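User: Sequence for Ferritin-like domain-containing protein below. Tokens please.
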Amino acid sequence: MRLKEPRDLLLYELSAIYAGEKAIADMLKEVAGDVDDDNLAKMLKTHQRETKDQAKILDTCFKHLGETPMDVPCGVIDAIRQEYREFTANKPAPQVLTMFALGGALKVEHFEIATYRGLVDKAMMMGDTELAQNLTTILHQEEETAGKLERCASELDHKVLAPA
Ligand SMILES: [Fe+2]
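Assistant: Structure tokens for Ferritin-like domain-containing protein:
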């Protein structure tokens, strides 16, 4: 694997988030089936469909760059998935699992936001407007999802944790 130039780094990061999006799509499906909140389950399913489309947008980005994705894992997403599995193996109560799942989904979104912000910046600095635009489309979807999840988490925390 060639990692000599800044462009190689962009390709590496793009490849890692490409692997990440595929893992996230699987994870969202799994988590949507686990949570004890219809509104959250619906939100996760909607974002699962969006995530599959994001992987297609990334396909377009690789094509545009004339490259194929490097074979790299997305360590952060793999770790969040592992953390979720370890937690659920303890058979948490439904509400506790739902709160944990929401926190996990937010970790995923904020990781994605940080990743795409860095990638958009690099694409712009390279003068590649088309790449920057495609990545910005994904970034905005992640930001919108994070906002929805934050509102959902705040409502749930209020319901469960605030003193009566
Ligand atoms: Fe995503």
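The pocket of fe (ii) ion is lined by residues 21, 24, 51, 54, 112, 142 (CB under 6 Å).
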